[in-house]
Amino acid sequence: MLLLDDIKHIFKDEATLILAVLVPLLYPLVYSFIYTNEIVTDMPVCAVDMSNTPESRNFIRQYDATPEVNVLYKTNNLEEAKRLMETQKVHAIIYFPEDFAVSLQSMRQAPVQLYCDMGFILYYKAAYLSAYNVMLAQKHPLMAGNANPIKVHEVRMFNTIEGYGNFLLQAILPLIIQQTLLMALGTEVGTRRQRRLSELSIRQHMRKGLAYYIFYFLLAGYLLVVVPSLFNFTQMISVGSLLLFLVPTLIAMTAFALFVSLFFKHRETPFIYIAFTSVILLFLTGASWPEQAMPLFWQWFAWLFPSTPAVRAFIQLNAMGAEISYVAGYLGVLLIQSVAYFALFLLGKHLIARRHKAQL
Amino acid sequence: MIKAKLKSFCEMCRLSYRQVSIGFPVVAGLFTIIFFTSLLDSGMPQQLPIAVVDQDQTSTTSALQQRLSNFQSTKIVANFSSLSEARIAMQKGEIYGYILFPNRFTEDLLSGRQPDISFYYNSAIFTGGVLAMKDLKTISVIANAAVGQATLQAKGLTEDQIMSILQPVLIQGHLTGNPWANYNIYISTMVVPGVIILLVTLLLCYYLPKVGRAVQNAFMMGLFLFIFQLYLYGILRLPHEGSWLLILFLTLILVGAAMGFAFFIFALIPSRRMSMSICSLWGVMSFSMSGAAYPVDMMHPLLQALSYLFPLRHYFMAYQMNVLHGYSIAFSWIHISALILFSALPLLVWGRLKYQIRSFVYTD
User: Helix axis angle, A328-359 relative to A307-314, nearest 10°?
Assistant: First the structure.
């Protein structure tokens, strides 16, 4: 009964209502909307064709035909092309030198220069990879009749459309669970302290945690199942795996939130700390920057937070179709974190109680 | 009675301001700078794990593996006998890609029966997957070339002639503004200012209506942006085309824009919680809306219009045009003026802001 009151309290207080209900409901929708187009298509490119021969025009035609690129301007003036780049009308320039066709005919490799705007990573990727593919497809007249000695198959696994949202949201969704749970619980505890209400007993404090645990089970269903299906993200997790994943994940995240909540003495402080840690935690999961490329210290540091194993396990289960047994290691880490943070929470509670007694 | 209550209330408000200590901007600022610059220190990921499934096990395939192991961005960490083992390793996150040399690969090759090479890469993990793909694709091309080379050599052609036949066109990539393809350049330069101005707006909203305290904290936070730029370009020596003066000017107007935005929000919504919520939402969305990762031009037209409302977007545009590439300010004036306009936003609601600061009552 008391537990039910604690759950109801989440909806009663405006602050927790925002943090634990509105933010988790709306943020993922906003994010998914930002990335609905998913891929770079028809990025504007300028072709500088100093050669102006059937060979160069043919290459440009094939480049233009790739879905990623739209050769919007053709010119024989490099300065003009540079100006287009400066005014951001194009994000790449492909340059054919005067002797392009001559080289081809006289058995010399014909170089083509590609200038990419490195300010935008996805533009660079699109412009470069599609030029590279067109390059590989070029056949010398001598070889025109021959097939390649080896047939190459390229298999893009899991995220078959290579969508950006489909990649990023798989990491952001579990992170939203941890961060909002932390903020909401922190706010509740902070509010009590700010209002000079009596410190929660261990039992009351744990009941608050349990209330969030139960409520977040429902919320996780929305975040990890409803949102991905609304936006057609890859969804390979089975119901059984989802449950086996959620139980330790939510225990670890609740235990972490219980521990961290000991430090909040004010209603609004969680906002400041948590908004800025979110970006850092996202990088620590290794979704966008490979973990192997991180300095060792940060690799270890990452294991302090439940978001790291949770995000990695979720991506593997949901985006890569892993069996639950493949992520057993991550689930183990989550359990260790649960025990550790819960122990730290109890210790902290004990210390606070002792200090209170000493003050009396 | 009322007076006493009021007094105790004020006492409580004052106490609450002590919550975030002056040390917070220092710790948060330094941590953010150190975290991102050291995380991305390697510039470009190297030695990412990939695997080989060699069912043929001949000298030809091992020669190809040898060549693959010389590539910089990947490293062969395992040799599997079956595809399913390799797939499981990928699903476990142990490797980013793998290549299959099927049974009788060499035999088919020698007898001209066009054998297959298949390579698989993980596109659910962006950077790692793309780098694995690049190396695996290149090795497949090299394999083809190597075979062709042998036949053409037999016909007495020179090395250059052979290359021109096997690969008539050669793409030479040039990265404008980021010659080393260094990730520090486009992640740190955007994420760190983003985190710092997010904190600037949050600290302002948190301390208002105590203007002195608020500005002091926000200013300290902003100072770290200057330190960051000095560290990035002075000590780490990242390449840049813009002058120092310009970098400092952009930093100044970015911090100004963030402060202007926060004052504006506070004037409109004099609730600490609501103004902080809005600043959080704005700050966190800024990273996406800046267009540094997924280009704004590719977004829904509605979002393209909305992107003008994010100071970080304008900073990013001005930064990459003027600092990274050294283009003239004539091309980015719209973004620079936008940042200055953001700083001037409080003037629009000056009367209201003054009133809010005088009569603000904290309600939890």
Answer: 160
Residue A295 near residue A313 (C-beta atoms within 8 A): no
Query: Residues of A with CB below 8 A from B46's CB?
Result: 293
Taking the C-alpha atoms of residue A204 and residue A156, their distance in angstroms, rounded to an integer, is 51
CATH top class, domain A43-143: alpha beta
Are both B34 and B71 inside the same structural domain? no
Q: Strand B97-101 and strand B74-80: pairing? A: unpaired
The pTM of this model reads: 0.85
- Specify whether B147 is located in the same domain as B274: no
The three-state secondary structure class of A149 is coil
Walk along chain B (364 residues) and give the pLDDT tens digit of each residue.
Answer: 555 555 554 444 444 444 455 677 788 888 888 898 888 777 678 888 989 998 888 888 888 888 888 777 888 888 998 999 999 999 988 899 999 988 888 888 888 788 888 889 988 887 888 888 888 888 887 777 777 777 777 777 777 777 777 777 777 777 665 555 567 777 788 888 998 899 889 888 888 778 888 888 888 888 888 888 888 888 877 777 778 888 889 999 999 999 999 999 988 887 888 888 888 888 888 988 888 878 888 888 888 999 999 999 999 989 888 888 788 888 889 999 999 999 999 999 888 888 888 877 776 6
From the list B148, B168, B194, the residue facing A110 with the nearest CB is B168
Query: Where are the domains positioned within chain A?
Result: 2-35+163-359, 43-143
User: Could you tell me if B292 and B190 are in contact, meaning their C-beta atoms sit under 8 angstroms apart?
Assistant: yes
Partner-chain residue, chosen from B143, B176, B300, that has the shortest CB–CB distance to A37: B300
Partners of B76 in beta bridges:
B50
Q: Are residues B200 and B301 in the same domain?
A: yes
CA distance A233 to A186: 32
Q: Please indicate, yes or no, whether residues B29 and B119 belong to a single structural domain of this protein.
A: no
Looking at the structure, do residues B109 and B236 belong to the same domain, yes or no?
no
- To the nearest whole Å, the CA of A343 is away from the closest chain B CA by 26
* Chain A residues inside the 8 Å CB shell of B22: none
Q: What is the DSSP letter of B104?
A: T
CB-nearest partner of B364 from A156, A167, A191: A191
Cβ contact B130–A125 (<8 Å): yes
Give the residue from chain A lying closest to B73, CA to CA: A293
